[in-house]
Design goal:
- The complex is a heterodimer of chains A (393) and B (324).
- Chain A has 393 residues and is α/β, with parallel strands linked by helices.
- Chain A is built from ten helices and 16 strands.
- Chain A folds into two domains: 204 residues, Response regulator (Rossmann fold, 3-Layer(aba) Sandwich), CATH 3.40.50.2300; 151 residues, Response regulator (Rossmann fold, 3-Layer(aba) Sandwich).
- In chain A, strands 2-1-3-4-5 form a five-stranded parallel sheet, with helices on both faces. Chain A has a four-stranded parallel sheet with strand order 7-6-8-9, covered by helices on one side.
- The longest helix of chain A is centred in the last third of the chain and has 20 residues.
- By secondary structure, chain B is mainly β.
- Chain B has a single domain, classed as 7 Propeller (Methylamine Dehydrogenase, Chain H), CATH 2.130.10.10.
- In chain B, strand 4 and strand 5 form a beta hairpin.
- The longest helix of chain B has 15 residues.
- Classes of the chains: A alpha/beta (393), B mainly beta (324).
- At the A-B interface, helix 2, helix 8, helix 9 and strand 11 of A face strand 15 of B.
């Protein structure tokens, strides 16, 4: 009888434990564009799930950790087609998820941020590199995981200056985003002691990306476009729109290396990155998505991992607690870059090393040795606290 | 008696009188795909053994007869006969084995498989895989409690020390530590478990009974940026009084008072110092310096670096035992 009684009590305890052990559910949203822009290089053609594939791996990694803490993560994804209302989609997502990873242009990011501010929803910007989102247009409910154009430009400039390639020929595209990247490169040149000996704009006159006799024409155009330039060490291209930069290497009038939007490219991630345990990450990604990992995938992975890191450190799924921890002084996240990544408290930008890649290999990682800073050498990349125009609200 | 013979006899007598120095260290060179063999009397490399791809975790079997080395890119563990210095066998680890540990009897081996979030259990006598334990993302550090009852595995992206019951092979506790935990080590009296966090830049002190973090060792080296301080390998003296912690790209080994948990000294070694092992008499501690491709020899009592030995490329792990 006694034993039977004890058995019943034990059973009751197990049952109540199981009840108490309902996992904490943490919903993360993903809001991005469904259409992907065409690239000049066929091998660089982005996959349909560029970005969201990284978020999915982040959710999977969070869940492996979460099973030890009784936390369960789910991803709610909305990808907008042309003409879809971004605000409506954001409202819908915010109804389910207190955190939304975004891959949207700057204006749409702001629209969504302002719409969701009163609900307490926090955006993790994984796509937009615009400096203004971290400066005059910064918002207290937007955390920036993507690096800025100035961070990318500074990372490249530090290496070129270290290499003693200080005379630059700057070629920029004719679209607004190309001009913004060119601005960042000009600023970087001044900051790190490089000199722009000449600038040229490459006008986008439209036309098809691919034609059957494309190479012949390009081979005539590019040398002519780059001739009669004062002595320079490196051609730096600002072509975010991917109109011409990929055509420059091996076709310049003078035999010079190309950097910027082609040749040596600054980026947050590359499929060739294999240092600091990154091979495991690359393998996990490949296994899950059957393709290689892009910078956008990495930025979305990091965004979901930041949430996962904060939920495990706070042992909580409470959005306010989680976000307060991310914004607080003890937050850091590891992302296979050889150092911990932390947030700039003045504008909520994630500090991060920037890889310099040539399409096959990681050539170098900035900040370069010798570029010193009183707080963090990562703050030698991008706009620093004393220069900021951000007032978080 | 001719003088030469006298010398030889004297040498033989000396050798017999100080057997303590007759040790041999095996160093895994991650990039060269070799293992360097160091004689601790002459402090020279006496042999270089070609092994599989990406050798990292390396350890003598408990009987000192074999050296096991995890060759991650070949998805196996190779066994080197310490007498002949030849590879004689392989063990069925899971994919991408990195670090491993053995039970006190040397019968069961536990391997961290970075690529599939598991710890593999291997019967060393039968050379057979006898089980798996699912752990966190990227398992790495492995150690076993002095009583053999608890296996510790650290997972690098989950940031936890998993406590695994060796009898049931079930996880019984998970302790959150700082980012990228790399290595775990018990004090011999089981009073403390130390876990190094490479990216977090700390060593967590865990109470193994309560299974919670009770303290943290932090490092502060004037003139060095904080991000460069990345603790990895830990070595503790048998008396539990002094610990040495390799600080990676800080190029230093911290000497820590293991009772107060305070750093007492930083020893400058080679570049990117990684793992370490004591000579069995604890007179010397050898540390691997990945980027400078050498091994530093530390005099434990004097707390001084006395020698540097060139080995292969990217030396990673090290294990030391009596000469066979």
């Amino acid at each position: 009888m006694f034993r039977w009684l004890a058995g019943t009590i034990a059973l009751g305890m197990v049952a109540s434990q199981a009840l108490a052990a309902d996992p904490t559910e943490i919903h993360i949203g993903y809001l991005g564009k469904a259409s992907v822009k065409s690239k000049l290089s066929l091998v660089e053609q982005p996959a349909d799930n560029d970005g969201v594939a990284g978020a999915k791996l982040g959710i999977e990694d969070n869940n492996t950790t979460g099973k030890f803490l009784n936390q369960r993560f789910t991803l709610d994804e909305i990808r907008l087609k042309d003409g879809d209302d971004v605000v409506k989609a954001a409202d819908e997502l915010a109804g389910r998820a207190p955190f939304i990873v975004t891959n949207l242009p700057a204006d749409e990011t702001l629209k969504v941020a302002d719409r969701l501010r009163d609900r307490g929803t926090v955006l993790l910007n994984a796509g937009a590199t615009d400096d203004r989102l971290r400066e005059q247009d910064c918002r207290a409910n937007v955390i920036h995981v993507a690096p800025t154009r100035t961070m990318l430009a500074d990372a490249l400039a530090q290496y070129l200056v270290w290499k003693q390639w200080k005379r630059w020929f700057l070629v920029s595209g004719s679209h607004d985003n190309d001009k913004l990247f060119a601005d960042a490169l000009r600023r970087a040149a001044t900051r790190f002691g490089a000199k722009i000996v000449q600038e040229k704009t490459f006008e986008d006159t439209g036309g098809a990306r691919r034609t059957d006799s494309g190479v012949t024409l390009i081979q005539r155009q590019m040398p002519v476009f780059t001739q009669q330039i004062p002595t320079y060490d490196v051609l730096v291209a600002a072509d975010e729109s991917d109109v011409f930069a990929a055509y420059l290497p091996y076709r310049t009038w003078d035999p010079r290396p190309v950097a910027g939007s082609a040749g040596l490219v600054p980026t947050s991630w590359d499929a060739a990155q294999d240092q600091w345990g990154a091979v495991q990450m690359q393998n996990r990604f490949l296994k899950l998505n059957q393709r290689r990992m892009t910078a956008l995938d990495m930025q979305a992975w990091t965004a979901t991992r930041m949430i996962g890191e904060a939920t495990s450190r706070t042992n909580s799924g409470d959005p306010k607690k989680v976000i307060d921890f991310i914004k607080g002084p003890d937050f850091s996240v590891a992302a296979f870059k050889g150092t911990k990544l932390t947030l700039r408290d003045w504008n909520l930008q994630l500090r991060q090393p920037i890889l310099l890649v040539d399409g096959r290999m990681v050539v170098s990682v900035s900040p370069q040795e010798g570029f010193l800073h009183q707080v963090s050498e990562l703050d030698t990349l991008g706009l620093d606290r004393p220069e900021t125009k951000c007032k978080l609200k | 008696m001719p003088p030469r013979i006298v010398l030889a006899v004297a040498a033989a007598w000396f050798a017999a009188a100080s057997p303590a120095a007759a040790y041999v260290a095996y160093v895994s060179n991650e990039k060269s795909n070799t293992v360097s063999v160091i004689d601790t009397e002459s402090w020279t490399v006496t042999a270089t053994i070609k092994v599989g791809q990406r050798p990292r975790g390396i350890e003598f079997t408990r009987d000192g007869k074999f050296v096991m080395v995890a060759v991650g890119d070949d998805d196996t563990i190779q066994v080197i006969d310490a007498k002949t210095q030849k590879i004689v066998d392989t063990l069925p680890s899971g994919p991408d084995p990195e670090l491993f540990t053995q039970d006190a009897a040397g019968k069961i081996m536990y391997v961290a498989n970075e690529n599939d979030n598991t710890v593999t259990v291997i019967d060393l006598e039968k050379r057979a895989r006898i089980g798996d334990v699912q752990v966190g993302v990227e398992p790495e550090g492995m150690t076993i409690s002095p009583d053999g009852k608890i296996l510790i595995n650290t997972s690098e992206t989950t940031n936890m020390a998993h406590f695994i019951d060796t009898a049931t092979r079930q996880i019984v506790a998970n302790v959150l530590v700082d980012a990228r935990p790399r290595f775990a080590e018990f004090k011999r009296d089981s009073s403390e478990l130390w876990v190094s966090s490479e990216i977090g830049g700390t060593v967590s002190i865990i109470d193994p009974a309560k299974r919670e973090v009770t303290g943290k060792i932090t490092f502060d080296i004037p003139g060095l940026r904080r991000e460069a301080i990345q603790p990895v390998g830990i070595g503790m003296t048998k008396d539990g009084k002094t610990a040495f912690i390799a600080l990676g790209p800080a190029n230093r080994v911290a000497v820590v008072d293991a009772t107060s948990h305070k750093v007492t000294k930083y020893l400058l070694v080679g570049q990117r110092v990684w793992h370490m092992d004591f000579t069995p008499d604890e007179k010397y501690l050898l540390v691997t310096n990945g980027v400078s491709n050498d091994v530093s020899v530390i005099d434990v009592a004097a707390q001084k670096v006395i020698k540097t030995i060139q080995v292969g490329e990217l030396p990673w792990g090290i294990t030391i035992a009596n000469k066979p």
